[in-house]
Amino acid sequence: MSAPSSTDTGPGLGRVNGLPRPDLVKQLLACLDVQRWAHEIADRRPYATAAELYEAADTAAPDLTDDEIRSALAAHPRIGERSEGDDTSSSWSRSEQSGVSDEDTELTTALRAGNREYERRFGHVYLVCASGRSGTELLEILHSRLDNDRDTEKRIVAEELRKIARLRLAKVIES
């Protein structure tokens, strides 16, 4: 599935512009579960191009609060664990983590241990944009981030949330 062109003005963008606000907000919350972010994007409509929509997504709610980050992280399963829900966000998460094979028990065991260590250190789930990455790569990133201080990790988590939101926003445009 390829992302829409940044100059796309096709039916997907028209649908985003034309959705009733509550319906669009619901779809945006599947991208990033932060109310302020979703409402800002919905309120900036209409978008002439996908690039304008992506710019809005990148700049909405520029400084995520600790509560907003906690809310957004609550919508994400641990890396290496399959989301069990049948909602849009759970489906996307399973697809995004497709590089982690359930059959590689050594890797999944290492990811579980890394997740526990990360959560003890930072108090929340380890989050990384997993799309297109192997399980080994995700584990290496996890280990490299364990040495970060809390402020550095907060900044990284906010960046990763925005990366994931942008990828998911492309899916909203395509749907």
The CATH fourth-level homologous superfamily of the largest domain? Oxo-4-hydroxy-4-carboxy-5-ureidoimidazoline decarboxylase
Q: Please report which band the strand proportion falls in: under 5%, 5-15%, 15-25%, 25-35%, 35-45% or over 45%.
A: under 5%
Major beta sheet, specifics? none
Helix content: 55-70%
Structural class: mainly alpha
Question: Can you name the CATH architecture of the largest domain?
Answer: Orthogonal Bundle
Separate helix tally: 9
Pfam families: OHCU_decarbox (PF09349)
GO biological process, one term: urate catabolic process
Protein name: 2-oxo-4-hydroxy-4-carboxy-5-ureidoimidazoline decarboxylase
GO molecular function, one term: 2-oxo-4-hydroxy-4-carboxy-5-ureidoimidazoline decarboxylase activity
